[in-house]
């Protein structure tokens, strides 16, 4: 249940004014203190107020018309049923409200008929109120709302103590993880002032460190949103739900924000930069993206992994090409440029402006894990990468780049980084790295990636994500990767004819996919075939992967089992 507190709230919740005769100051002071306490604890005292109201109603009804009691059960059932349809309540809340209305109605019926003072009705009322009050008192969001009410009331004084004197809470919303408030700054104050005061605000509100977030309001320099988290929704790893995308045009769900909203980013026509220190979860984010892209029939995936293929090898069966040495990487990027030329030519012929991906004309995504390795070991490839970054968008050739620290040197100059329109910043070691990954000025605007405290936590700057909101990526396990890669390996698309023709003349000598290696091994096998252990060693792939391909090719007559456990190409 969400509830907005606005100016209306202030009008209807202003402190009560107590009027009393000017005779006894002590009595007057006691009355003021009591009425203030009753007002302050009105939410906690609500069950007692309901009990008193029920008793008085029963007293009046019993004295006026005790025979009217049959009307009460009918209206009770109608009211209780209405609570079940309330759209803002969750099912447990509806069940509690239903039970409370039914119990109150039953008691009121009996008390109207027999009189509220007739035993055991008073005892029953007391016991039922006490039992019914427990879930009310324990209710997490009721307590959160009360805390928010009190904070709003205390803010004028607190704002001075936390260094934001004159700022105001304009409205507040309680949600599943805590609450957030629209704040108005005093003229002259800036969001940067609020960001600088975050630790003081946390101390003033009495929260744990790290519970308060400040987000600028893009529409007004004198306003911001203050997010207060009662509990950290990112405290534990969030399991990967598996691939959700079926087309490269679908935004990919890579994790969740703190308010449980999903983080969806587009990779079609948008180059992606993933930055973060070692062990911050870069490969996890890459795996989440690859897991979804592997399930899409309109994108071909190429990979460059200069850490010996450690990160991308598990996806080999879904990658059309995988480069693991600097020479292979340079050749791969060269080929991607040839594809760009061929596609540009094809588009010119068809008088089209952009390459629209389909299963027959797939997009091409080049994944580069640890870009700094590429600039270090294959500097000649940097121009090719930059050319893809500059020209690739319209031609549906996209880069997905991960790096530990995207300095000018590591990125081979700033040209590539400036083309990356989607930035994912995981934990960085130094404050200034935030501006390196995201862009200049982002640290000052509240994108505090240096304070992220667990792997997989990140900030994202992309279309539709322009505020500094913390998110956590799904945890993609090795098992998830194995299962997803095996599931989609046989249904990957091939490049379109213009793209294939553009690279055909240079493919000789470049790295080939495990599938191609397997086919060559079968094609050159002796008449007695090659053993499965040999095929495993030649391709570097698992037994199940080998058998999946062999059986698929055997079904189409492409390969045959020469003898038990030995296979070759069908030459008949
Ligand atoms: N989203 C996540 N949730 C929880 N744990 C995660 C998440 N992502 C990664 N981890 C854990 O963090 C550790 C490091 O992750 P990962 O290898 O992805 O980091 P990295 O930044 O790629 O590291 P390196 O730079 O050394 O390659 C792993 O043990 C992994 O299980």
TrEMBL record:
It holds the Pfam family FtsK_SpoIIIE. GO terms for molecular function: ATP binding; DNA binding. The chain crosses the membrane at residues 45-62, 68-85, 97-115, 121-138. Residues 249-435 form the FtsK domain. InterPro entries: FtsK/SpoIIIE/SftA (IPR050206), FtsK_dom (IPR002543), P-loop_NTPase (IPR027417). The keyword Membrane applies. Keywords: ATP-binding, Membrane, Nucleotide-binding, Transmembrane, Transmembrane helix. The keyword Membrane applies. ATP binds at residues 276-283. PANTHER family: DNA TRANSLOCASE FTSK, SPORULATION PROTEIN RELATED. This is S-DNA-T family DNA segregation ATPase FtsK/SpoIIIE. It comes from Catenuloplanes niger.
């Amino acid at each position: 249940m969400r509830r907005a507190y606005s100016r209306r709230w202030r009008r209807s919740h202003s402190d009560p004014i107590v009027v009393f005769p000017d005779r006894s100051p002590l009595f007057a002071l006691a009355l003021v203190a009591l009425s203030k306490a009753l007002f302050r604890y009105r939410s906690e005292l609500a069950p007692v107020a309901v009990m008193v109201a029920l008793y008085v109603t029963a007293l009046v009804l019993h004295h006026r018309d005790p025979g009217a009691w049959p009307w009460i059960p009918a209206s009770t059932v109608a009211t209780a049923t209405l609570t079940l349809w309330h759209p803002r309540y969750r099912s447990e809340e509806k069940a509690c409200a239903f039970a409370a209305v039914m119990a109150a109605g039953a008691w009121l019926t009996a008390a109207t008929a027999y009189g509220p003072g007739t035993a055991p009705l008073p005892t029953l009322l007391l016991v039922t109120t006490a039992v019914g009050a427990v879930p009310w008192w324990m209710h997490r969001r009721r307590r959160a709302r009360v805390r928010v009410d009190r904070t709003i009331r205390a803010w004028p004084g607190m704002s001075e103590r936390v260094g934001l004197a004159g700022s105001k809470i304009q409205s507040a919303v309680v949600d599943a993880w805590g609450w957030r408030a629209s704040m108005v700054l005093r003229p002259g104050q800036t969001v940067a002032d609020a960001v600088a005061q975050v630790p003081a605000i946390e101390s003033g509100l009495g929260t744990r460190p790290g519970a308060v977030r400040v987000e600028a309001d893009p529409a007004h320099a004198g306003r911001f949103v203050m997010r207060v988290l009662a509990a950290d929704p990112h405290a534990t790893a969030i399991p990967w739900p598996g691939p959700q995308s079926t087309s490269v045009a679908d935004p990919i769900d890579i994790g969740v924000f703190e308010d449980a909203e999903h983080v969806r980013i587009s990779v079609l026509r948008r180059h992606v930069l993933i930055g973060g220190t070692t062990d911050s979860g870069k490969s996890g984010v890459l795996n989440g993206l690859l897991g979804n892209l592997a399930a899409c029939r309109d994108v071909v995936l190429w990979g460059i992994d200069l850490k010996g293929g450690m990160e991308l090898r598990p996806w080999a069966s879904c990658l059309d090409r995988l480069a693991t040495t600097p020479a292979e990487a340079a050749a791969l990027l060269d080929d991607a440029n040839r594809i760009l030329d061929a596609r540009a030519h094809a588009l010119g012929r068809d008088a089209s402006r952009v390459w629209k991906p389909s299963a027959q004309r797939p997009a091409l995504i080049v994944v580069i894990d640890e870009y700094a390795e590429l600039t270090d070991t294959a500097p000649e490839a940097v121009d090719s990468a930059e050319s893809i970054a500059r020209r690739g968008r319209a031609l549906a050739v996209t880069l997905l780049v991960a790096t530990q620290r995207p300095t000018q040197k590591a990125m081979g100059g700033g040209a590539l980084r400036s083309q990356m329109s989607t930035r994912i910043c995981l934990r960085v070691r130094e404050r200034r790295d935030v501006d390196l990954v995201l862009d200049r000025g982002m640290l000052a605007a509240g994108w505090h990636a240096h304070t992220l405290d667990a792997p997989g936590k990140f900030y994202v700057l992309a279309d539709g994500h322009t505020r500094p909101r913390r998110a956590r990526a799904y945890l993609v396990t090795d098992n998830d990767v194995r299962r997803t890669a095996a599931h989609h390996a046989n249904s990957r698309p091939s490049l379109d004819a213009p793209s294939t023709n553009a690279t055909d003349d240079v493919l000789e000598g470049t790295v080939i996919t495990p599938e191609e290696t397997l086919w060559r091994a079968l094609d050159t096998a002796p008449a007695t075939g090659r053993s499965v252990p040999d095929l495993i060693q030649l391709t570097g792939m698992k037994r199940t992967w080998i058998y999946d391909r062999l059986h698929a090719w055997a079904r189409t007559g492409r390969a045959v089992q020469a003898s038990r456990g030995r296979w070759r190409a069908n030459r008949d």
